[in-house]
Amino acid sequence: MSDYISHDREHDGIDRRGFLKCMAWAGTGVLWTISGGVLASKTLAEVAKAGSSLPKASDLSFLQISDSHIGFNKAANKDVTETFKIALDRINAMPTPPSFLIHTGDISQLSKPEEFDTFDQILKSCRTKDVFYVPGEHDVINDGGKMYRERYLKNVQGKGSGWYSFNKNGVHFVGLVNVLDLQAGGLGQLGDDQLEWLEDDVKGLGADTPIVVFAHIPLWSVYPKWGWGTSDSERALGYLKRFGSVTVLNGHIHQVLQKVEGNVTFHTAMSTAFPQAAPGDAPSPGPLTVPAEKLRSMLGLTSVQYKQGKTALAVVDSTLS
Amino acid sequence: MNTIISKITIAALLSGFSLFAVAGEMNDASTGNAKENKIEIKDFAFNPQNITVKSGEKITWINKDEEPHTVVSVGKQFKKSPGLDTDQTYTIVAGAPGTYSYFCSVHPKMTGTIVVKQ
Fold it and tell me: Residue B4 pLDDT more than 90?
């Protein structure tokens, strides 16, 4: 059985066994709700071999990478730059290069300029040049995200603490920031200014416009005890309720989890640096050290495909092993 | 800088406010043999979570996690720490009596309290 999950609600094949395995892997700390969701399993390696198992005439494909944690050098992964390079190699080896990348935060371990420099240097090897960013809490530790915004959000003219939106192939993308001005005892947070902006941003869009929202911390309550959630995400999702297809892509938890709720699909990506325990399976959500030979099977990236005329976007995870 | 903070503290006390009551303190030299209270950061928690110290005593946090943490005062009552990597420490000197809440701005679920007594 494959370790990967994906969904494509337009197809017929339901991989219930794969789904159950994912459920088992997620442990008991997560409530899974599936409504009309269809899961299928594919890996980028399989795609590269077969050359045909992903939709050929895809109108738009992009890739999500996350949680590079450049600068991390502890037991869980002594060489995070190497695994990040491998992830980029995988992207470069794809038969059809993605239109662009989305990086969902935690580029760096400690918000150090030299960590960002290393990331930028390695990223140059990627064939796909267009990258859209949202910060993780590791990227904004000392300066409230000032350096991050200057480096990664200038081109998109991020509003407020860095949120923005853009359109590609009829899909509306929204990058949100939920790692700043966090309150003691609280979760991730979007804040009033950003929420008001979001309401306004999507106001003029037709309900048939596919929406992709990306942010670092999950916009659903994955495991609040570990801070894996966003306190005011419900309000954000309220503004998106009327849309027929909403895909929410997050990082932060260094593992694949998915939830489908009505027309909204929530999906978290693997890290390219180190895994974290399933919710509640460890004393804390710190880096999880696994046997060296197992590490790459727990790191990875996420490919997303949008095909015009189809409602749901296909989300496919693949590991670095 | 220490002098400035001390002056602000005194001024605040004289005027009946306890702003800056716990003054950020990065230099040990001027504080001599003041007692040092240690708070270990481990498994995404401050341990002990609640600590009672005397005014003038030092409080030092040490990060024993592989994850960076910070020490940030609720209401900015004392200077926040930079991101602390594994085994890095941060020290402040307790100022005026009172109760001071703090948290880790990277993982805000992590909270702690300092009670400063006379």
Answer: no
